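Data card: per-record layout.
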Amino acid sequence: MNKTEEPGTDDKPPMRDLLVSAAFELFTERGYENTTIDDIVRLAGVGRRSFFRYFPTKEDVVFPDHEHALAEMVAYLQAAHSDQDPVTTACGAARVVMRMYAENPAFSARRYALTRRVPALKTYEISVVWQYERTLAAYLERRFSHLPDGGVRAYTVAAAVVAAHNYGLRTWLRAGATGDAAASVDPALDMVRRTFHEPEDAVVLIARTGTPLWQVVQKVETALKRDSSGS
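The structure for this 231-residue chain is written out next.
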């Protein structure tokens, strides 16, 4: 028999998934505070050492996918080209986290409900969100380093991206995580992009002295529409 084969384990979920499933089953039945790590490993059929191999604390088992999502966000930002608009790139990185939630809507909805009920998990979630925000701010700080207000701009944009993402995501979660998560998150992120995006082009208009203001405005609007249509 091949050494990599383990009879009878083909259909068994990975141990990490077993622990998460057991934890949430117990959290639902007994409550988060009344569930111990010993209870979780007993139901999962593994030892305590196996739990701590994957999760440093009980709080971590509630957020098993955030470490991976953070790594994917970092990879996304590192792969971004220098000529890409940094605000648009930051919004794209936030969508990496959105997709993580959207991959398992039922689990995401259960976690959201649990987090709302347990103060310790709310505190933990704040620390997780801070890691995302700090990652975005570090990227934007590098991209805005040539600007005199680059530091404050980076942290302001990062905070806005995270706030917009969280608003859209929680709107989706409060609705039971049904439908397309992007339909809630994208409009919020697009608002951030429109607010902070610096246009690369300028419109130069030459008009005679005394030209009525309404005609000037009309000419500018016409020029902008022509530019956006690519004509």
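Known properties of this structure: DSSP finds ten helices and no strands in the chain. The chain has three domains: 15-60, 77-196, 201-231.

See the next section for split statistics.
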